[in-house]
Amino acid sequence: MAQNVSNMSNDSYTVSKNIHEESGFPPLVRHIYVGYYVIVFLMATLGNLFALLTCYKNYKVTTTTILLSYIASLALADLLFTLLTPVDLAAFLASSWISGQFVCRFQSFLIETSYTASVLTLAMISRERLVAVTTPLLARSQRIKQRKLIPVVIWVISIASCSPLLYAYIIVKDNDSVLQCVNIGWGDQGRQIYYSIQGLLLFLFPLMYMIYSHYRIFRVLKKSEAMRKRMTIKPGSQSLQQRKITKMLAVVTCIFVTCYFPFMLVRTLKYFYVFNNDMLWRLVQLMIFTQAAVNPVVYCFYSKQFRTVFKDLMWCRWHKINHFREGNHTFRTKSSSLEACEPVRLEALHTGKDLSTLISNPSPRPISKRSSKSSVWL
């Protein structure tokens, strides 16, 4: 162990004390912190495991859906982040790093990878919803298999962009012989440059795009609702489902921004030595940890299918899940002739074109039988 630990020079010691200075939490605060952590850890672990299983069981039947792939990617990122947090809790309780050099590097690398994948996944979800709401015929004519590879590409980009952190984190020992896993491998300037670039390209720009996408989506939905009222057209079941899913994803995005933005801000202030407070640092870490537990609750609140499958998973009724999904799939097949008209009607509302013109001159790309079925996950 001692061979893996570097004794810090005076300059490195100053950097370590600025970044990882412990403020000596009172016993009551430590107990509240640990109790809250245990509750959130259990909720996040079970919730995201159930979310992944739900996506898997539905994916086996409803293979045309795209949204399931993105929700699975988001749940995987949250679950990965959750399972890595006990290492930090152990260091907090011991007031020293006790997990070794290998864990120091890979835990820091994987945590950064997980929330990079989260923000990129949310950005691509925003794009999918924007296309589905503004140009529904185009969304249905796009190839499903190629779009399902996007979450894989997201994780590849996340791993590649965070891999330099494997060379940044090292274990150091201060003058009090306290071990710390610190990001000083590149020095102050290298760390500041890296996190500035990453913050702009992999947080701020995707965040701006998400805000823009949701703004456009809600404008289109509001305009469509106003046109329906003037034309006395009742919204179809698919249209109502579009609105409900859009609201769910908007809530997930808002929760992500609310929890992650303070963390990104405080981390930037710490690394540029503008402000440093260990109590605040722990608080913003708990915020992003809480976000991982809240997402599965949001899925259940907005989706009856998630609630049903969650209940069946809790009672180990796997056969009932398959029966429910197959029955739902059959119902959608019988009603596809009615629901297939909904995208055309939506496009007429969005573009102002004549409905008969769109029906007589459909999109040049054929819509497959699978993609024409109404899906509760679309």
Automatic annotation (TrEMBL):
It holds the Pfam family 7tm_1. InterPro entries: GPCR_Rhodpsn (IPR000276), GPCR_Rhodpsn_7TM (IPR017452). SUPFAM superfamilies: Family A G protein-coupled receptor-like. It comes from the Eukaryota. It is found in: Membrane. CDD domains: 7tm_classA_rhodopsin-like. Gene3D superfamilies: Rhodopsin 7-helix transmembrane proteins. The keyword Transmembrane helix applies. Keywords: G-protein coupled receptor, Membrane, Receptor, Transducer, Transmembrane, Transmembrane helix. Residues 47-299 form the G-protein coupled receptors family 1 profile domain. The keyword Isomerase does not apply. GO terms for molecular function: G protein-coupled receptor activity. It is a multi-pass membrane protein. GO terms for cellular component: plasma membrane. The chain crosses the membrane at residues 34-55, 67-94, 106-125, 149-172, 192-212, 248-267, 279-302. PANTHER family: LEUCOKININ RECEPTOR-RELATED, OPSIN RH2. This is QRFP-like peptide receptor.
